[in-house]
Design brief:
- The chain is mainly alpha-helical.
- 56% of the residues lie in helices and 4% in strands.
- It has 14 helices and two strands, in the order αααβαααβαααααααα.
- The protein has a two-stranded parallel ribbon with strand order 1-2.
């Protein structure tokens, strides 16, 4: 399969996933690996017919989910690893880097942007829009969501719910909200999110700033098995972070 597809990176990727797709009797494949966003321009070059759907969420709710995601872990090692990934400044910069990449692709015929808040408040309309973009037929069965990825809802929960929207107001400390809005102000405006007045503790805000470098190093350390080569990882994310 690989040799018949051309023998490049794109050929290897296509041969592997199209092979799996055919083996289970399907006709199209989907890859939802988050870090592929940073390779989107390369992937578009490899596959001009590919379609991208990017889901954008309020950065403050993103922080709230990231902060509490460790609760989903079943082992102490995983809980420790995931806890070590969160820091209000580092996590805000992570959201910003992704948002910057998505903004460079706004209006691109291969890219559709979906706002998380719109998706959960008007799911049928949004999913129908996604289906139209992908050239698929819409069906009400697509509303029957059995799995979820919430940091707060019980594991047995299912369906589409709106309680995750605006949860940041209760789940984040004021200084975390302040840093998130400060770092992501431009991107928030671009995607229609409004900053809220926040009275943050100066001491806590400064402590967060001083501990950010250590938190970044620790996050890179505990996630070493997932991030890949450090130089390439840092280069792509730094380049994305500096985009405006």
């Amino acid at each position: 399969r690989f040799h018949s597809c051309g023998e490049g990176y794109d050929a290897l990727y296509y041969a592997f996933l199209s092979g799996l797709t055919r083996d289970i009797g399907r006709t199209r494949f989907c890859d939802d690996t988050p870090k592929h966003l940073y390779y989107s321009h390369d992937i578009m070059g490899f596959f001009p017919e590919a379609k991208f759907v990017a889901c954008v969420r309020d950065p403050r709710d993103f922080l709230a989910s990231y902060k509490h995601y460790w609760k989903r872990m079943t082992s102490d090692n995983e809980r420790s690893r995931v806890k070590g990934l969160y820091h209000p400044i580092v996590t805000s910069l992570l959201w910003r880097s992704s948002a910057n990449v998505i903004q460079t692709l706004l209006g691109h015929p291969q890219m559709l942007v979906v706002l998380y808040e719109r998706l959960v408040t008007a799911p049928s309309e949004e999913v129908e829009r996604v289906c139209h973009f992908l050239g698929l037929s819409y069906s009400e069965t697509l509303m029957q969501v059995e799995a979820h990825n919430s940091s707060f809802e019980p594991q047995r929960a299912s369906g589409i719910y709106t309680t995750s929207v605006g949860r940041w107001a209760a789940a984040l400390d004021p200084h975390e909200v302040w840093w998130s809005q400060r770092i992501n102000r431009g991107n928030m405006q671009a995607f229609g999110y409004r900053s809220e007045p926040t009275k943050a503790s100066l001491v806590k805000a400064v402590v967060a700033l001083l501990t950010a470098p250590v938190a970044l190093i620790n996050a890179l350390r505990v996630n070493v098995s997932r991030r890949g080569p450090i130089v390439a990882y840092a280069r792509r994310r730094l380049f994305a972070l500096l985009r405006s």
